[in-house]
Design goal:
342 residues; Ribosomal Protein S5, domain 2; Alpha-Beta Plaits; 2 domains; five-stranded mixed β-sheet; 10 helices; 16 strands; binds (3R)-3-hydroxy-3-methyl-5-(phosphonooxy)pentanoic acid
């Protein structure tokens, strides 16, 4: 064999209990458990091809058509970790293992704008490399080395990332809570508010927060453990109002923690705040919680709602943001994309 190529598509996941803060920077071990839902790959995904050949003189990476330097430490850590598993498993011959790789990855949504692009990207890269080297082991641990939240994208449906306690990180893994088919009416509606790269990367933001925020300590000790247990229960029971309330409270607390950091940093924009207001008004008018919002490290909203609410919500969004352009509408635990501008 003188060359081999593998292509993989990996989905985005959007957390309902947010991961924010690390206890180990190198191994990417989180301070708290987190919970997410994995979206369908037909709307938001990363697609990665990995190619190994004796003719490639040094490792290469192409992101969205542009050649980038392969010097990123996390990228190197992922490749090294996969190769060392392959060596242990003896899953390919030594020659093949010594060849350099070419990685080509594309996202079908804005990169680094708080839409979990790194989660999909690293989940995709690690899964593609694992296929290239014929690995049998679970690779969610390796995806975590690229981007913490990436370990959750390795599974579909509802997923928990256990913070773990072991200093080696061996128990800091993702597990599936339930498949998407367990709650077939659940939908995610992504409102793209802005597609610019964020000013404060999640790595930098987490560092500032971990060093300075008192609220983060309170969150980790007194809020996240109870919320994690309750939201898992709400998923198992398919209790939407409970799921939605915890989701919104956790998103709000995550952004409050960013403001409580010193210096503070802000990911939400005026449009994001307007979306929050609209959702609360809508739920009030309905006399119960029908829609939940959540925001990652960026201004874009992910709305969780049940299928029957989707058309109503889209018309409300279009009413308040008339220049909205509908994108894709799909079914399942999947995303519906809308471009929102004021
Ligand atoms: O995995 P990172 O470094 O991209 O951090 C993700 C952080 C949040 O998206 C804000 C929360 C989460 O749990 O996904």
């Amino acid at each position: 064999m003188s060359s081999s190529v593998v292509t993989v598509v990996a989905p985005v996941n959007i957390a309902v209990i947010k991961y924010w803060g690390k206890r180990d920077e190198e191994l990417i071990l989180p301070l708290n458990d987190s919970v997410s839902a994995t979206l369908d790959t037909s709307v938001m995904c990363a697609k990665t091809s990995v190619f190994a050949s004796s003719n490639i003189t040094c490792n290469e990476i192409w992101l969205n058509g542009k050649k980038e330097s392969f010097s990123n430490k996390r990228l190197i850590n992922c490749l090294d970790a996969i190769k060392s598993i392959a060596a242990k498993e003896k899953s390919v011959d030594d020659d093949f293992l010594s060849w350099n790789v070419r990685v080509c990855s594309v996202n079908n949504f804005p990169t680094a704008a708080g839409l979990a692009s790194s989660a999909a990207g690293y989940a995709c890269l690690v899964t593609a490399l694992a296929k290239l080297y014929n690995l049998k082991s679970d690779v969610s641990c390796v995806a975590r080395l690229g981007s913490g939240s990436a370990c959750r994208s390795v599974y579909g449906g509802f997923v928990q990332w256990h913070a773990g306690t072991d200093p080696s990180g061996k128990d800091s893994v993702a597990t599936q809570i339930a498949e998407a088919s367990h709650w077939p009416e659940m939908r995610a509606l992504i409102l793209v508010v802005g597609d610019k790269a964020k000013k404060t990367s999640s790595t930098r933001g987490m560092n500032i927060t971990a060093q300075t925020s008192e609220l983060l300590k309170h969150r980790i000790q007194h809020c996240v453990p109870q919320r994690t247990t309750s939201i898992i229960q709400s998923i198992k029971e398919r209790n939407f109002p409970k799921f939605a309330e915890i989701t919104m409270k956790d998103s709000n607390q995550f952004h409050a923690v960013c403001m409580d950091s010193y210096p503070p940093f802000v990911y939400l924009t005026e449009v994001s705040h307007k979306i929050i207001e609209i959702i609360h008004k809508y739920n009030d008018l309905c006399g119960g919680i029908k829609v939940a919002y959540t925001f990652d490290a960026g201004p874009n909203a992910c709305l969780y709602l049940l299928e029957e609410e989707v058309p109503k919500m889209i018309s409300i969004i279009k009413h308040f943001f008339p220049s909205t352009t509908p994108d894709n509408l799909v079914t399942g635990l999947e995303s519906t994309s809308e471009l929102v501008s004021s």
